[in-house]
């Protein structure tokens, strides 16, 4: 037994993240869980700006800076992907060689699926490779069908039926699918996630079996995959890892003043509003949302990034100071876990969706782009843990609709049913990551398989 533990502790996994907050978060949590199982784990992040780190005793975090050859470092631009690939290709082999020289050779590279070409580097170095998908299986299944040519774009029919998925109206598909003229290079990257789908050694999804059961079963008919989520700090779900209170690597600094403000509010009385680290509302939509929050006459905590503040209506913060608090950034999980929060207005990014679901917070879906429309479909119609805000003829969610949705959840009859469903999914998420749960078992299986593979090579 002791010999086996020694082998496990010497098995080194390198986790390589795409440089965006929504990708770093699940990968760093997966890295922590691998370390909890006894492996030696290093997280490597290629970054364009500062990374605010909270020291972790279980994993090592390394960064390599690169400068995109464009005035816009936004990762939706094609040049960004090319610059990133060039930087990784130039630096990763040297980094891995240094690990070997230091007596800790890398046994496996777990890489973000958006960086599928990392597998080529791993193969050249004789290292095993594992692809980590940061979006839902449902969304990934759509991209798989596109890659295989089984779903044609532009999508001309009003709805599509795909195996393992509910029938989806065209607007419920990822935005890159129904609006192909925008960001065509990003769509090609999303396709490429499946370029080595059958060659990679392991495939991980940040989800859990019962959450996307039909899509999971269909994907498993193609090849073995492992659901290992939700990848959320352990203090909020599972409680396996001591002192795991935060993701630990943030591209934005948080404002912790909001917790004191929440402490003064009654249970379930606050609407939390956040559109993540990348989504940006238009000025007209920002105005409608602002006045909708005011009209609802409920307490609200709204995260408005510094770059978005200029879109707020003039005097809005002052006029709503008795009911609302606007901050530039916060620790979202800490807020969602607070008893005062009764509703989450979200863009439906996959991480935010999993966080709201895992913490049992009813959601109002206001998807903006990429995978968010599909996630909103599942929130409202499949898991029934929220409502989707309706858009008008201009594609905007009106202030009246914002008010209606808030009241529907906070005080309406439908809100009672949504809260029951939210509690149900919270328990199921907890069971999945707890000791012996489906996601915990998947990680155990990977560790065993990797150690056996490493000992034979």
Automatic annotation (TrEMBL):
Pathway: Pigment biosynthesis; anthocyanin biosynthesis. Its EC number is 2.4.1.-. GO terms for cellular component: cytoplasm. This is Glycosyltransferase. One of its GO terms (biological process) is anthocyanin-containing compound biosynthetic process. Belongs to the UDP-glycosyltransferase family. InterPro entries: UDP_glucos_trans, UDP_glycos_trans_CS. Keywords: Glycosyltransferase, Transferase. One of its GO terms (molecular function) is anthocyanidin 3-O-glucosyltransferase activity. It comes from the Eukaryota. SUPFAM superfamilies: UDP-Glycosyltransferase/glycogen phosphorylase (SSF53756). Pfam families: UDPGT. Gene3D superfamilies: Glycogen Phosphorylase B. It catalyses: an anthocyanidin + UDP-alpha-D-glucose + H(+) = an anthocyanidin 3-O-beta-D-glucoside + UDP.
């Amino acid at each position: 037994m002791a010999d086996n533990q020694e082998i496990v502790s010497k098995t080194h996994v390198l986790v390589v993240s795409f440089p965006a907050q929504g990708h770093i978060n699940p990968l760093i949590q997966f890295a922590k869980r691998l370390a909890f199982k006894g492996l030696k784990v290093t997280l490597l992040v290629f970054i364009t700006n500062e990374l605010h780190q909270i020291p972790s005793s279980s994993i090592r975090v390394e960064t390599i800076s690169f400068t995109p050859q464009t005035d816009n470092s936004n990762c939706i631009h094609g040049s960004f992907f090319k610059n990133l690939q060039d930087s990784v290709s130039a630096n990763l082999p040297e980094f891995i060689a240094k690990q070997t020289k230091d007596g800790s050779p890398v046994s496996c590279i777990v890489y973000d699926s958006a960086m599928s070409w990392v597998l080529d580097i791993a193969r050249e170095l004789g290292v095993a490779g594992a692809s980590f998908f940061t979006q839902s299986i449902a969304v990934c299944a759509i991209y798989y069908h596109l890659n295989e040519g089984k779903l044609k774009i532009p999508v001309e029919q009003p709805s599509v039926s795909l195996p393992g998925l509910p029938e989806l109206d065209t607007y419920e598909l990822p935005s890159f699918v129904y609006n192909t003229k925008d960001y065509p290079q990003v769509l090609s990257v999303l396709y490429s996630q499946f370029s080595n789908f059958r060659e990679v050694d392991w495939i991980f999804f940040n989800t859990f079996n019962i959450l996307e059961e039909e899509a999971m079963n269909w994907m498993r008919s193609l090849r073995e995959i492992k659901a290992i989520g939700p990848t959320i700090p352990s203090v909020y779900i599972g409680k396996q890892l001591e002192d795991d209170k935060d993701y630990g690597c943030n591209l934005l600094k948080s404002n912790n003043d909001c917790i004191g403000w929440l402490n003064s509010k009654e249970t379930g009385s606050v609407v939390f509003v956040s559109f993540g680290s990348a989504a940006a509302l238009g000025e007209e939509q920002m105005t409608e949302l602002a006045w909708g929050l005011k009209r609802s006459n409920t307490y609200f905590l709204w995260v408005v990034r510094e770059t978005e503040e200029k879109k707020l209506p003039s005097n809005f913060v002052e006029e709503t100071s008795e009911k609302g608090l606007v901050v530039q950034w916060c620790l979202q999980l800490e807020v969602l876990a607070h008893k005062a929060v009764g509703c989450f207005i979200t863009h439906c990014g996959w991480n935010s969706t999993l966080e709201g679901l895992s913490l049992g917070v009813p959601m109002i879906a206001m998807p903006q782009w990429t995978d968010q429309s599909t996630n909103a479909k599942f929130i409202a119609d499949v898991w029934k843990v929220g409502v989707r805000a309706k858009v008008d003829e201009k594609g905007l969610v009106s202030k009246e609709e914002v008010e209606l949705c808030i009241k529907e959840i906070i005080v309406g009859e439908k809100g009672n049913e949504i809260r029951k469903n939210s509690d149900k999914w919270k328990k199921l998420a907890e069971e999945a990551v707890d000791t012996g749960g489906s996601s915990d078992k998947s990680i155990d299986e990977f560790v065993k398989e990797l150690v056996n593979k490493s000992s034979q090579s």
